[in-house]
Design a protein that fits this description.
This protein is of the alpha/beta class and 330 residues long. The protein is 28% helix and 16% strand. The strands form 2 sheets. The chain has an 11-stranded mixed β-sheet, with helices on both faces. A hairpin with a 6-residue loop joins strand 9 and strand 10. Helix 1 crosses helix 5 and helix 8 runs parallel beside helix 9. The longest helix has 15 residues. It binds threonylcarbamoyladenylate and magnesium ion. The site of magnesium ion has 3 residues, from loops.
């Protein structure tokens, strides 16, 4: 049975011992829950891929308690230091040149000569990282391709007994996976949009930052940028301005005047068919709610999940990125 544990000094010690012994721990972070293993132990890392059903060509992010821990494992370039000072600890992952012979399992990097590094801000993640004092490889704690977990219950629903212990610290405040910024060579580029936006990074660097878009038929820049990802089982329809009969609604802002084709109003749908990411149109609130509300509406009796449009600015870019992937057909 998976142990779902309230974090305390004692239980964090237990989790650290489990990790040292090659176990897998559900670790809360400010973005989503991670499935953590000792990044220096290939057997433990292999268990992550097994538990998630994740293809081995998709590399993992290594988590550290501080920037000071990283130079043993990756080259902290001038650009990396500058950006880390502004956004760490926090929801930002940097792709850096990996130090040869650093001890990180080749499974973590899927054979690449770069390493994804992140210093999370969540208190429990910080305490756990300090207690183990080795880098922790941690992808989102869900079956590969499904929605990322933002609560401890999501972790257990998705992975069941495949995770040895879950440190349960409530819902994640950001709710979307970290921004992935590639600083490993040439011009910095965002491989995955997140809560730290291109504008935030431009402000620090003083030059334009672009998003790498994965398009059909082109090789993804980041192995994890497969178009279909983060997907519920129910089909997702974007930019809905009205509903078809049988559709569930994921609203953003007011849905007061939204109609159902053939008669009726969205506002009269039963609670089970209707969620609102943010009635006031707040993008941070919408990001935090996105994955759990998609899960709430993901039921076989719903023909489709119709999603109202989200403005393509700031955090809306990351929300729309996840929604487009959720809407992508197999
Ligand atoms: O917020 C997050 O980043 C969460 C929490 C747990 O920290 N983690 C997470 O991990 O979302 P995961 O494995 O689901 O996503 C990692 C992403 C993937 O898209 C992967 O392809 C990319 O980072 N990535 C990892 N290493 C890379 C590398 N060396 N080069 C390019 N992309 C890399
Ligand atoms: Mg993931």
């Amino acid at each position: 049975m998976t142990k779902i544990i309230v974090p305390s000094k004692n239980t964090i010690k237990q989790a650290a011992a489990l990790l040292e012994a090659g176990g897998l721990v559900g670790m809360p972070t400010e973005t989503v829950y991670g499935l953590a293993a000792n990044a220096l132990n290939s057997k433990a890392v292999a268990r992550i891929f097994g538990a998630k059903g994740r293809p081995a060509f998709n590399p993992l992010i290594c988590h550290f308690h501080s920037l000071n821990q990283i130079p043993d494992y990756a080259d902290v370039t001038e650009q990396a230091r500058l950006i880390a000072h502004h956004f760490w600890p926090g929801p930002l992952t940097l792709i850096l040149p990996k130090k040869p012979g650093c001890g990180i399992s080749d499974l973590v990097t899927a054979g690449l000569d770069t390493l994804a590094v992140r210093v999370p801000s969540h208190k429990v993640a910080q305490d756990l990282l300090r207690a183990v004092n080795v880098p922790l490889a941690a992808p989102s704690a869900n079956i590969s391709g499904s929605l990322s977990p933002t609560t401890p219950a999501h972790v257990v629903e998705s992975l069941g007994h495949k995770v040895d212990m879950v440190l349960a610290a409530g819902a994640c405040t950001v709710g979307l996976e970290s921004t992935v910024l590639d600083l490993s060579g040439g011009t910095p580029v965002i491989l995955r949009p997140g809560a730290i936006t291109a504008e935030d990074i431009e402000y620090i660097f003083g030059f334009e930052i672009t998003y790498a878009h994965s398009e059909k038929g082109t090789a993804p820049k980041s192995p994890g940028m497969l178009l279909k990802h983060y997907a519920p089982d129910t089909p997702v329809r974007l930019n809905a301005i009205d509903l078809e009969p049988g559709e569930a609604l994921l609203a953003f802002g007011s849905d007061k005047f939204m109609g159902i084709k053939g008669g009726g109003a969205a506002k009269d749908l039963p609670e089970s068919m209707r969620r609102n990411l943010s009635e006031s149109g707040d993008l941070h609130e919408a990001a935090a709610n996105l994955f759990s509300m998609l899960k709430n509406l993901d039921r076989p009796e719903h023909k489709t999940i119709a999603v109202m449009s989200i403005p393509e600015k700031g955090l809306g870019i990351a929300i729309n990125d996840r929604l487009h992937r959720a809407a992508e057909k197999d």
